[in-house]
Amino acid sequence: MTEVRVPTLGESVTEATVATWFKKPGDAVAVDEMLCELETDKVTVEVPSPVAGKLEEIVAAEGETVGVDALLANISEGDGGNKAAPKARESSENDAASSQAPRKSSDGGGQSVDVMVPTLGESVTEATVSTWFKKVGDTVAQDEMLCELETDKVSVEVPAPAAGTLTEILAEEGSTVEANGKLAVLSAGSGAAASASAQETAPAPAAASPSTGKDVEDAPSAKKAMAEAGISRDQVTGSGRDGRVMKEDVAKAIAAGTSAAASAPAAVTAPRAPSAADDASREERVRMTRLKQTMARRLKEAQNTAAILTTFNEVDMTEVMAIRNAYKADFEKKHGVRMGFMSFFTKACCHALKEIPEVNAEIDGTDVIYKNYVHMGVAAGTPTGLVVPVIKNADSMSFAEIEKAVNAMGKKARDGKLTMADMTGGTFTISNGGVYGSLMTAPILNPPQSGILGMAKIQDRAMVIGGEIVIRPMMYISLSYDHRIIDGKGAVTFLVRVKEMLEDPRRLLMDL
């Protein structure tokens, strides 16, 4: 008998409510098939089946509150939930490859080890194989990097699970693989010879149960995803029990809609004019990375869903620059990090967000969720595209802690080491286009957030102060906001508060 327990729910989250059971006692279940969904005050968590077999007992019914590691259900292991032919397994790690025919090691005695797609993060179900660092026949050490996968948000390196020889690559560069899919086969052991293995096509997933005609409650995460994407229930085909819509069904519907929208113009617009021979030889066609494709889709979805407006103001940076010049040497000596402008802007925004809480809120269907904390997203350009790492609980950080966090996230972004946890949960974002020389900027929202601050370059300009013309270092700042939740007064007040605190940084210290 295998126990199904409540997984880790996240930092500071200790309990959840059982929202929906997708299976009932007596149902056959497959490995990783969704059993139930839990709701916390922050996220929705899906609980997969750890083994194939039959659901014998549900311990925590729908609506019950459960703690971390609490018992949810019991499963009797067996072949009832496994559509593949039964076969011996040497370890539980091979369960994900149960649809593959058994492999026999070569006479060299090396044991075959599957290289699987690692966990990609919440709601990420597939990735693209971007680069193989090894080729078939190469000897590899344990934990040596074999390949790199690219998801919608981050790059994931796949290390060798054992030392040996790479005998087979199942997913070539450019191919798309699903979570827990098989990438390659290793022959474990020094100098192991390549093994010949017969591969079979994995059986297609079982078709969704036809609707019984009764009212079906869709998964809460699916409802939220449909509300965020602005699509209706009838645009999504449910694959859950009794035809209920799951979160992955919404993702498929969004992807299908994006593909249709992308292909529609080709049917009504004239084809691309042929290039002259000499021009064609100087052109280069490069496929967009998954990160670029996702960024383009999300930005367009934000424009289609939110009512985006932008308001502008300008900041006299004299006082901030004076403080920075006066204390930057001492600051770096004590804290080991340079004092930049981002800590001032982050602190100013955190103070303004407390006064105008709707800027730090989000729309969830017909509800507004107000965040009593600030997880600050900091947009950063990288060679592979725009990413927005998140500094958690920035409102409780000091100047030095913010600068250290910004530097650490920036380095991880440049090195391609950001994880899903680094990029999720943001409540507000700052985008600094000034580092590239932008004089004015109106950034697009980072959904489901309702506001984003744009910073521009600092430029000396002639200003009239006290009846005299003086030269001051000025910066244009902007707030792009969702007019569905933030009115004009709130947006303008927010930006004025940021301006006031930057022009008189003493207000930050006195919480004014």
TrEMBL record:
Residues 94-103 have a biased composition (Polar residues). Residues 76-115, 196-244, 263-284 are annotated as: Disordered. Its cofactor is (R)-lipoate. Pfam families: 2-oxoacid_dh, Biotin_lipoyl, E3_binding. Residues 217-254 form the Peripheral subunit-binding (PSBD) domain. The keyword Transferase applies. It catalyses: N(6)-[(R)-dihydrolipoyl]-L-lysyl-[protein] + succinyl-CoA = N(6)-[(R)-S(8)-succinyldihydrolipoyl]-L-lysyl-[protein] + CoA. Coiled coil: none annotated. Gene3D superfamilies: 2.40.50.100, Chloramphenicol acetyltransferase-like domain, E3-binding domain. GO terms for biological process: L-lysine catabolic process to acetyl-CoA via saccharopine; tricarboxylic acid cycle. Keywords: Acyltransferase, Lipoyl, Transferase, Tricarboxylic acid cycle. Residues 196-213, 263-278 have a biased composition (Low complexity). It is an enzyme of class 2 (transferase). Pathway: Amino-acid degradation; L-lysine degradation via saccharopine pathway; glutaryl-CoA from L-lysine: step 6/6. GO terms for molecular function: dihydrolipoyllysine-residue succinyltransferase activity. Forms a 24-polypeptide structural core with octahedral symmetry. Part of the 2-oxoglutarate dehydrogenase (OGDH) complex composed of E1 (2-oxoglutarate dehydrogenase), E2 (dihydrolipoamide succinyltransferase) and E3 (dihydrolipoamide dehydrogenase); the complex contains multiple copies of the three enzymatic components (E1, E2 and E3). This is Dihydrolipoyllysine-residue succinyltransferase component of 2-oxoglutarate dehydrogenase complex.
